[in-house]
Design a protein that fits this description.
This protein has 288 residues and is mainly α. It has a domain at 153-282. 73% of the residues lie in helices and 0% in strands. The protein is built from twelve helices and no strands. Helix 4 (87-110) runs parallel beside helix 8 and helix 10 (216-234) packs antiparallel against helix 11. It is globular and about 55 Å long.
């Protein structure tokens, strides 16, 4: 067994344990359904944080982003009963599952093992020093948990609401599937680029989707969350169920893209020319 396989097996066992923590928290909390899911989510995040401190690697949290929505779908299935599901429930469950397992697989194939930690967390460790654990819990782990939970809120209406606007449900499913497909293609192109023979230092992927936009994977991610938001509206959810999707756009546009641009500018001499030529998210259509 290689060190990477061993590390992934350990992460799998850790997440199975976190699922148990979530179930216990859900059962113990006496509040509403949405409160119970939120408490379970936070309990699992606390558990993930504690293990990340022991392992001295905050990248343990990275797959949580993609795993927890699938946990939620499983929770709705177990608490609501499969016999109560209609075609829309099943379609949304398939969409979330496809997105979840694809993104988790993409993380797993790119993570070499415990010796690696995301470059952003390494920078935080250096910059924040003794205060890093504050950043680790509230910034690296709890904040994304709240963000993803907000993005998943529409599911409470999808798996328990009425089919008020079926056209929005269909549109949401199509947009979510488009986003998932876009991420899949972009991530595969990036993975192939990283595996290429005789790579040159400072090379930039500027072909395929990456030649049309700098962050097609981020665009796909935003489309997925907006797909869920539209499904929630279609199932009778209030207007504020889109708040999670709005927050995702703000996160990527205001935080993730500027951070990535800054890092690329430092490590890739040709990045400025690429940035001037290729827009961040939407292809630039030129006449002629």
């Amino acid at each position: 067994m290689t060190s990477k396989v061993r590390a992934l097996a350990q992460v799998t066992l850790i997440y199975a344990g976190l699922a148990g923590v979530g179930v216990a928290a859900y059962v113990a909390w006496p509040g509403s359904e949405i409160e119970r899911f939120l408490v379970a989510d936070i309990a699992m995040t606390v558990g993930c944080y504690l293990v990340s401190v022991v392992k001295r690697n905050s990248s343990l949290y990275d797959p949580y982003w993609s795993v927890i929505p699938f946990f939620f779908v499983g929770g709705f299935f177990l608490t609501g009963g499969a016999e109560a599901w209609d075609l829309t429930d099943s379609a949304v469950a398939v969409l979330v599952s496809l997105w979840s397992w694809r993104l988790t697989f993409n993380w797993a194939r790119g993570w070499p093992g415990w010796e690696h930690e995301d470059w952003r967390y390494v920078d935080f460790r250096v910059a924040h020093g003794r205060w890093f654990q504050f950043t680790n819990f509230f910034g690296i782990q709890l904040f994304p948990t709240v963000l993803v939970f907000a993005g998943c809120v529409p599911l409470f209406w999808v798996f328990g609401g009425e089919r008020v606007h079926p056209e929005l449900l269909v549109l949401g499913l199509c947009i979510g599937l488009l986003g998932t497909l876009l991420e899949h293609i972009a991530d595969n192109q990036l993975a192939a680029f990283k595996r290429r023979e005789s790579p040159l230092p400072g090379d930039i992927l500027d072909t395929g989707l990456w030649g049309a936009m700098r962050y097609p994977n981020y665009l796909g991610e935003m489309l997925f969350w907006w797909g869920l938001a539209l499904c929630g509206l279609g199932a009778g959810g209030p207007t504020w169920v889109v708040s999670g999707a709005v927050a995702m756009v703000v996160l990527f546009v205001v935080v993730s893209i500027p951070l990535k641009d800054k890092r690329m500018r430092r490590s890739r001499p040709e990045f400025e020319a690429y940035r001037a030529r290729v827009p961040a998210l939407f292809p630039r259509f030129r006449d002629g």
